[in-house]
Amino acid sequence: MRWSPRAGLLSWLDGRLSEAQRQLPPEELGRYRVLIGATCLLLAMDVLFLVVPLGSQQQASPIQRVMGFGCLVGYLLVLLLVRWVRSLHLPSFILCSTLTASFVVTTLIVENPNSVSHAAGMLVPILSVYLLGARLGFVFTAVFIFNTAFFHQFYHSGFGQVRPLFADGFAWMKNAMAALCLLLAWSLSWLYSTAREESHAALERALKTLRENEGKLLSLIESTDDLVLALDLEGRLVTANHVARELFHQLRNRAVLTGGSLHELSPPEERWVLRERFAQAVTGQRLRTEVSLPVDGRIRTLEITFNPVWEGRRVVGMTVFGRDISERKEAEARLEEMHRSLLDVSRHAGMAEIATGVLHNVGNALNSVNVSADVVVQRVRGSRVVGLERAVELLRENGSSLGTFLTEDLRGRQLPAYLEALSAQLQQEREGVLEEMRRLSESVDHIKSVVSMQQKHARFSGVTERVEVPGLIDDALRLLAVSFDRLGIQLRREYCAQVPPVLVDRHKLLQILVNLVSNARHALLESGRQDKQLTLRVERAGEMLRIAVADNGVGIAPENVPRLFTQGFTTKTEGHGFGLHISALEAEEMGGALTCESGGPGQGATFRLELPLS
């Protein structure tokens, strides 16, 4: 470090003090330094006063020597006391008393009338006010003023010789001006001391407030579980809380030091990320990033936020906050895995529900096939074809005398009428069998269409395509295998004249529609109403396509409406609570939303599915 005279002088002055005195506040330490410095200078002047005249022709008088040695003792006593006493009041009082006494005695000894106006007299008001305060300083200054203005001339005039006292008017005026200057010196010192004390008090209040705020801020920073750092513009560490220090110790196996670089303390694989974010934040941007750090054999993920510290319009530093989000990341991963599992379960549940409808529909068609087949078998068994065989056998037996058989034999005469009746009967049987075969063919075609439709929708699962919503709603109705007329449900379709197609996953949308229509059917059946009504409405609402499934069934209690789309909640005795929850999630995945409205129990319910048109 480069040596300077100021630092050397202060170091020398502090060397004259005890260790406890060197730890005093700056204001008190400054008074000790001034006291020692002034005493040493006065001591040097006193020694010079005693030594120099000894070698000259003019010798000092005995009184002057006694005064000089008295001052020497006083100054040395001050230097001894200042190191051992707890307060500088006594040494300061001795110094000011010695200085005042020596100056007054000198002016009385020396017959020079100008001695009272010597510049050295200014030291008394200045030092006394600074070291002892304004009141005691005024006492010493008053002694000086009295000596300068009155006592000096009164003493040299012979105590009572009035005329010589005012004989030299110019000297009297000069001494009065010197006394006035001494009073002015005390006043200026008092004003300076008062202003300095006020400034010091204000500074102390500001420092106290600053320390309190700093303590609160430090308490706040240390009480958080987040990493908190303060950096300068070069990326050097200014301060860090205990979380940051502990983390750096775990990463680098050493304590973090003020002035260390953040880039040096971070892992090599993450340095470029932090360096890039720091460079961007220095320009005034508030940035956030995530870094992964290997700590104690596991990867910890930190969310790092860079906050520029502004001074006016320029960035002067950086505050870095780091939050450990490892548990949140793990929870998000588990939630994502649970979500995928729930989607698989819901898809399987939806597939099972649709498959149940398909099987029910196929079963109904198979019943029709079975009935038609039984009717055909029964009609074939009861057919008059056997009678025709007997008639053919009679004609074969009488083939040689067929004319005589038909005209003379009783059986022959009845044969034409029998064949005519048999022909009519066979024709009727033929038409009945054809009708049953037609019904059988229709049932088989229905089975084929249901299976084909299920295959078509299952084939495009997970693929986004343009879907005509009204046609998909009709497919959902057919997949449910429900004859709404047979259940006494009036089905109303209210489709907008121009319904644009939507770009969605066909399988997801079909599953939502099947679930909504199935829930509406159950609500209507449980209501026991005679006027059961199910309304399917498709309309355009701005940039959204709105699909509404409304029923006048059992309705939903107001307290249950907000819980309808939560996982595991159901009002059905045999429900699993997956359907509406997964339907709402799939609606969100397609960029839409699924909502519900109900007037309460017995007031029905309306489910609305909104999907974006673009």
TrEMBL record:
InterPro entries: HATPase_C_sf, HATPase_dom, PAS, PAS-like_dom_sf, PAS_4, Sig_transdc_His_kin-like_C. This is histidine kinase. Its EC number is 2.7.13.3. Residues 504-614 form the Histidine kinase/HSP90-like ATPase domain. Keywords: ATP-binding, Kinase, Membrane, Nucleotide-binding, Transferase, Transmembrane, Transmembrane helix, Two-component regulatory system. It comes from the Bacteria. PANTHER family: C4-DICARBOXYLATE TRANSPORT SENSOR PROTEIN DCTB, SENSOR HISTIDINE KINASE. Residues 215-283 form the PAS domain. It catalyses: ATP + protein L-histidine = ADP + protein N-phospho-L-histidine. The chain crosses the membrane at residues 34-54, 66-84, 90-110, 122-151, 171-192. Pfam families: HATPase_c, PAS_4. It is an enzyme of class 2 (transferase).
